[in-house]
Structures
1.
Amino acid sequence: MNLSSLTSTKATSSNAAAEKFSSLDTLHSTQSNELVSAPVQAILEKTLLGEELNVEDACVLFATQGAEAQAVLDTADKVREKRVGDTGTFVITRNINFTNVCYMGCRFCNFAKEKGDADAEFLTVEQVADKAEEAWARGATEVCIQGGLHPDIGADYYRELIIAVKKRVPEIHIHAFSPFEIWYGCKKGRLEPEVFLTELKALGLGSMPGTAAEILDTEVRKQLTKNKLTTEEWVRIIKAAHSVGVPTTSTIMYGHVDQPIHWANHLALLRDIQKETGGFTEFVPLGFIHYETRLYNDNPDKVRPGPTQDEHFKMHAIARLMLQGHIDNIQASWVKMGPEVATRMLRSGANDLGGTLMNESISRAAGATHGQEVFPEDMVANIQAAGLNAVQRSTKYEVVRTYFVEENNAKTPLTDRIAIRGVA
Ligand code: SF4
């Protein structure tokens, strides 16, 4: 069963929940739509009819404030309901970062260490398999595996890692390796991405995170990563993955040296790729966490300390509007924004709260403070608090289990998580 076929018949108290969330946020504090200008109104009417927004439209919406911004969020909430119903989703997953050793020197990253550093880590493939086995025992349907570009690993490490996990936990979905890691494996193994990805898929790779996208603009990438993985290379690897049947997520990292025009162009590019390949499962906005990064600390006058809360809300809402009909799953990252703000995002365009994670070290290394794990029970409670039906999903957005609002009060406790895996 696919989530898009879910109806809203079981959802209750949506409006009450929306009002509750409305009172909490600066954007949501403006009640009136009377101040919405004709150009903004025209764009919102266009998107409600399902018509495509262009880059200029998106820039107009990113510039909105007050009542106009509220109208953008309300419109995104309506489009979310139209596209995916009154459903909020999450996935039970474990993040496994197999090494933090990396020499790429991305300036927004505080995760990377050098070999020999006291806190350098490098797991063997069997240690990764141990973690996957533990995750499966705790009800995870997925492991998300990523790591630094360690100088000692080559294409074989990526192959062996998939083999080890699949041998130990054959049914778990392996969501692994950013486009940067695939680029690295290809470089080390002198392989074309299609060849390498076909091999990895045959070994058990289920999907890839579309991370390392940052902002798909050359000038911005030069400041973030010295343009080591170019926009063209990111797109090339993503398209290669889709062409061999490996779906990916899509992401943006915003709130540093970027501007709304970069966000709008980025969304348009992702939409173009999706029209061509259909291989994106979701879009995940990732706000820049600045605290411990060289990018911010070396240039505090020029680099912003992450997005404002208003920008978080507008990013999710405008992504919903720009991508509607193409990428209909918009994820709100509790790791970046905290569970409370991520939950409120569910009434401003997002429909997914992402993974429970169990371990998360990349954002934590950059100074994020939102913990390492949200339990499935809390995911369900948060989604229901937003007035939506909670659904545990698979990586590919198939329904694993639905929790209707009427089933609250522990009628369907999550004590049998393992037994219910795979039940639609
Ligand atoms: S973001 Fe990834 S590739 Fe860049 S330095 Fe950090 S670990 Fe390495």
2.
Amino acid sequence: MTYVITQPCIDVKDKSCVEVCPVDCIHHDEDDDRMLYIDPDECIDCGACEPACPVTAIFTEDDVPDNWKEYTALNAQWYKDKGRHPVYAGGARIPLPAYGPASPPVTLPVAARTATPAPPPLLPALTPVAGK
Ligand code: SF4
Ligand code: SF4
């Protein structure tokens, strides 16, 4: 198990967790990242960071709220493959709010998925002008 940093850290980044972590396993790039990440391979599950966070962003892996579950992988990926981390995708920084609470999936009705686009409106019929 590991501890995981989730959405409330975004743009807070006060680093209280870093100060109390005994194994220095919480990191970020100051100029690039809008939140911090816990290295799951280094975290010793001591729990010291959880109460230190002023915005309740840190949870044990098992207790991450359902709508923030993706942050578990997001924390790990930052350490394993930063080049493909969503925040670094394609070399461009992607705004992190895109990784906020997951929206419910949108499923269009079959008719909407198969419908062909409506043709452009027809031009109004020309009316001959009397006397010309
Ligand atoms: S649980 Fe302990 S070891 Fe793991 S990130 Fe928090 S302070 Fe560091
Ligand atoms: S203490 Fe909380 S808000 Fe501050 S950097 Fe750590 S996870 Fe982010």
